[in-house]
What we know:
The structure holds 2 protein chains of 2 kinds. Chain A is mainly α. Chain A has a single domain, classed as MetI-like fold (Orthogonal Bundle), CATH 1.10.3720. Helix content of chain A is 74%, strand content 0%. Chain A is built from 12 helices and no strands. Chain A has helices spanning 2-47, 50-53, 67-98, 101-116, 119-146, 162-186, 190-197, 203-214, 216-232, 235-240, 260-267, 276-304. Chain A starts with a helix and ends in a 9-residue tail after the last helix. Residues 308-313 of chain A have low confidence and may be disordered. Chain B has a single domain, classed as P-loop containing nucleotide triphosphate hydrolases (Rossmann fold). In chain B, helix 4 packs across helix 5 (161-171) and helix 7 packs parallel to helix 8 (221-234). The radius of gyration of chain B is 19 Å and the shape is globular. The termini of chain B are far apart. The model of chain B is unreliable at 5-38 (pLDDT under 50). The chains are: A mainly alpha, B alpha/beta. At the A-B interface, helix 7 and helix 8 of A face helix 3, helix 4 and helix 7 of B. Magnesium ion (MG) binds at residues 86-87, 213 of chain B.
Amino acid sequence: MRRHFGDRFGDGVLFGLTVLASLVAMALIVAIIYQVINGASLAVSTYGLSFLGHTTWNPVTNTYGAGSFIYGTLVTSGGALLLAAPLGIAIGLYLSLLASRRVGAVIGPLVELLAAIPSVILGLWGIVILGPFLRSSIESALHSALGWIPLFGQASLTGLGLFTAILILTIMALPIIASITRDLFLSVAPELKDGALALGVTRWEMVRGVVLSSTRPGIASACILGLSRALGEAIAVLQVIGGGSQSLIHGNLFANGDTLASRIASQILDNVTKLQTPSVFYLALILLVIELIVNLAARWIVHHYRLPDQAAT
Amino acid sequence: MSDLSPTRSPESNMDDSRSEADAVSMPLIAPLAAEQQSVSIETREVVFDLKDINVYYGTALALEGVTMQIYKNVITAMIGPSGCGKSTFVRSLNRMNDSIPGFRLTGNALYHGNDIYASSVDPVEVRRRIGMVFQKPNPFPKSIYDNVAWAPRILGMRSGLDERVEQALRGAALWDEVKDRLKRSALGLSGGQQQRLCIARSIAIEPDVLLLDEPASALDPIATASIEELMHQLKRDYTLVIVTHNMQQAARVAERTAFFSLEVSEGKRTGVLVEYDDTTKIFTRPSDKRTEDYVTGRFG
Ligand SMILES: Nc1ncnc2c1ncn2[C@@H]1O[C@H](COP(=O)(O)OP(=O)(O)O)[C@@H](O)[C@H]1O
Ligand SMILES: [Mg+2]
């Protein structure tokens, strides 16, 4: 009898705790969104939507606008996704299907360790080593060879800029995409792979036709997770992207830029004018909306790629 | 590998030296004897000529000294206790074992006179001609149509694809059940339908041989019966090798039966081919005591 009571009591406590935890999480989300909107209200009422298009941010002249940072965010995160997705998927394929067990056991954890490097350290490496290296070798070479393409303009003096930020973000998104897709590809039933190979197709045709095509929604989710990581990264980007108070909208990947997250991180403790903090909150609001759109897009993609009537009879 | 080409097309094959009686509605419990003894097995074309095949997984000898011939347009059954190497053996016939770490085969495995393990042979080409259906139905998570059309598309058989898909589905006795839902997912089919879809998928690329590894063991009796009936129809066009743990099934469908057993020596278990003969002989007058014990259910 007593045990019975104890069990029931335990159940009740467990139930209460889980409900409480969910409520706290929900309350936190609501509170944060409310406070971001509230904090931004002065800037929103002052600038309205023109804030989105205004491209300079200069506390000294009391001008604030998000245009440069929206642009920088899209360019760096998009660029990082463009590099990290194929690389990460290739690593995932290699680790799950091609590498011998011993090689996989070494490289797999190494890739995951990459995700464990604190971003501030990655940023430091970006300033001290990657930036100067890119400037002296890669950027100058690309500029002299392909300089007629606006993307490969004059390199900045420090080697910092959009391109360096893209590479740093690629390094951050890569382990996420690689490890998720590896697990995804490992989850494809061996019977399916055998079934394909038994039809006289090559390994690559099997990978494309069975492994990749049956995991498309998962691959898309992995890429979106990598993209979210890139969108939200502040410190490492702040360290390597250059920044500036002038308009940062330009086609040159090798020149300075800035992102929403990075500008939020660099400005939040300043309060030169009354509008500065509300403007920072406005940036935060924009970043939240972008993340929301990305997540909704992810849901849509997963839904859209669901196999024809997998659910149907 | 070009010299590995089968000497037939499904059409040319229909007027082979077979009695026509087995073409369509073969009764499930086949009247084997009457039909089979009409053509003596020695006159059949040999598809596989296997000499002293040993298969190793790492250092373990899984299969020892298998020597046998598999004949064209004949259903050959492999029976024997679990773990005696039946799957290992059939998977060796189309190099499906290649990807298993530690797999090694010695001996001479000739397919239409060509060594399929010769270093010049591309295993992809071998599998292109020697298809396989597995124990667990494994349709791709694609539509019914795409399950069948996928390999032909890749292999460059793009013209008349719709007809090819229909032919394959008819060949696998599935067409009438799925013709109205070709664009639906194959995963919505029943187990028996899925297995017939896997057979359709295999025959869509016009293979020469079809290997079936316990194709009905995951199915209910009705689905099993339809697979068995299908096999009788398929042997007109294909050479069939079926692994089964069900002796009645072997007796029902196969003309030739190979009995494999496990030999235990010094604690190592190795599969051997004990006896290979006409199915009727294996089940009524086996020449080996081990076969007799197994088919009469006295196997320990
Ligand atoms: N992939 C594998 N790796 C190592 N050993 C295997 C593998 N597949 C089968 N074996 C071994 O080979 C022997 C024969 O197995 P199998 O061919 O599956 O037998 P059956 O199909 O007759 O049940 C068994 O001892 C089994 O453990
Ligand atoms: Mg088996």
